[in-house]
Amino acid sequence: MYIEIDFESSEAIYEQLCNQIILGIAKNMIREGESLPSVRAMAEQVGVNMHTVNKAYNVLKEDGFLSVDRRRGAVVYVDKEKITALRELKRDLTIALAKASCKNISRAEVHALIDEICEDYK
Amino acid sequence: MYIEIDFESSEAIYEQLCNQIILGIAKNMIREGESLPSVRAMAEQVGVNMHTVNKAYNVLKEDGFLSVDRRRGAVVYVDKEKITALRELKRDLTIALAKASCKNISRAEVHALIDEICEDYK
DNA sequence: TCCCTGTTATAGTTTTATTATAACAGAGAG
DNA sequence: CTCTCTGTTATAATAAAACTATAACAGGGA
Q1: Do A56 and A98 belong to one domain?
Q2: Do residue A48 and residue A20 come from a single domain?
Q3: What is the nearest nucleotide to B39, using C1' and CA?
């Protein structure tokens, strides 16, 4: 699980961590039941403070991607509760598609892009 | 152009403004060439400071949704430059679809959701 | 006992968002 | 010309969020 932080980005470090871990799960680079590095190890690995990693792990726990316990650390355990996931997806897509629509990106182009991106997830 | 700000939201006010204006353009509620209220008028209308509105207008200008001039104010003028728009769309979709994939939302469900959302944009 | 784990607490710094005033220059209307 | 509207700029203050720095605690495993 290689994680790269862009310290120049306007995106918060803990958000970058969350996103890259979610990407790692989607791409099957880290599998259900496996553990992430401890907060201290991950912090040292990417060069940030322990609390920043802890915040990321807790957000992921809150969003149902991890299960944290004292013994095994942050374990990938995805809660497949679809209702809220769908609601969130719709919210994200609504604004992204509005921008695309303004820029004359066709619905077909969007569908094609979706398929292209989904190739990496299975 | 009715705009509603959720002051409880964790989303920044200027971002809410940007998103709602983009939605307004996508939904054809405000058309190319039309003007938005002046920064002062909009600020009073939604109950925030002038500078917050000014920031939103400038972000939208930067992103190619508005053209601001001293006489006519913030005019809807969408720069249809597709390359950067596509790049940004891909970035947005990449993380949204990763989350969806983790939650076992199928590609077909995503396509259906896209079509549903796009119904409002034409 | 020692070491690793997550967790909590406290404090300080930095950055961002927001507000508050104020002023300036350009354009249009009277 | 004067008045009033526009966006723009400057300055300052406040509030919140993000990040870091130390430190300590409790639980589990070797």
Answers
A1: no
A2: yes
A3: D7
Query: Residue B70 maps to which CATH number?
Result: 1.10.10.10
Q: Does A88 touch chain B (CB under 8 A)?
A: yes
Residue B29 phi, psi dihedral angles, 5° rounding: -75, -30
pTM: 0.92
- Under a CB-based contact definition with an 8 Å cutoff, are residues A50 and A39 in contact? yes
Place of tokens 């809150």: A62
Instruction: Round to a whole number and report the distance in Å from the CA of A90 to the C1' of C9.
Output: 39
In this complex, is the C-beta atom of A26 within 8 Å of any C-beta atom belonging to chain B? yes
Q: Is B31 on the interface with A (CB under 8 A)?
A: no
Q: Within a domain: residue B18?
A: yes
Tens-digit pLDDT profile for residues B5-19 = 999 999 999 999 999
Q: Which nucleotide is nearest to B11 (CA to C1')?
A: C17
Rounded Cα distance between B36 and B74, Å, is 5
